[in-house]
Amino acid sequence: MNSIVLAFDKIRTDIYNWRVGQSWLVKLLMAFGFALLLGLFANIKILTPLSPVAFSLSTFGALLIGVVLGRRWGGVSVAIYAVMALIGLPVMTTATVGITFGYVIGFAAAALFIGYLVDHVIKSRKFAPLFLVMTVAAMVILLFGTIWMWLWIGGELSLWETLRLSAVPFIIPDLLKAIAAATLATIILPKK
Length: 192
What we know:
Blueprint: H1 2-20, H2 24-42, E1 45-46, E2 55-56, H3 58-86, H4 101-120, H5 127-152, H6 159-166, H7 171-188
Antiparallel strand pairs: 1-2
Helix pairs in contact: 2-3, 3-4, 3-7, 4-5, 5-6, 5-7
């Protein structure tokens, strides 16, 4: 049993080192691929009467981008995703960029934050710290989404009412996404 654990640890370390050691072109292609994956996750959605924003897997995708690609290339991946959204490709949960673009800005902040920590703070690669990091990142995404929505609608609603529409319905689903992302990250990240 111990040899299986050691073999698995070696595999995930080799994969991590492979990602780190690739050329900028390969990293750019991986960033583009994850931007497409984020677009796919955004289109897996459930509309809700609680908010003009649908429930989707895009937060889960943004959390994983930072883990898999690291800070720099995770940020590039979300930037590619943002450009795809701005030029009108169907990668957003909603049909247009508009009211939900603040979440995309939050995705970039989350990918940068998570990517930095998993690349530079080895102790953050265990479940409990990863869950904390993923939860903070998910709340940052909601914060950017709320601020953007409030600015987009021109302050017509109070900040509390905007928060009720843009963040409150997503807290529990985002905690579940943070658990799932932290679990997956715990499995794939080397511990050394």
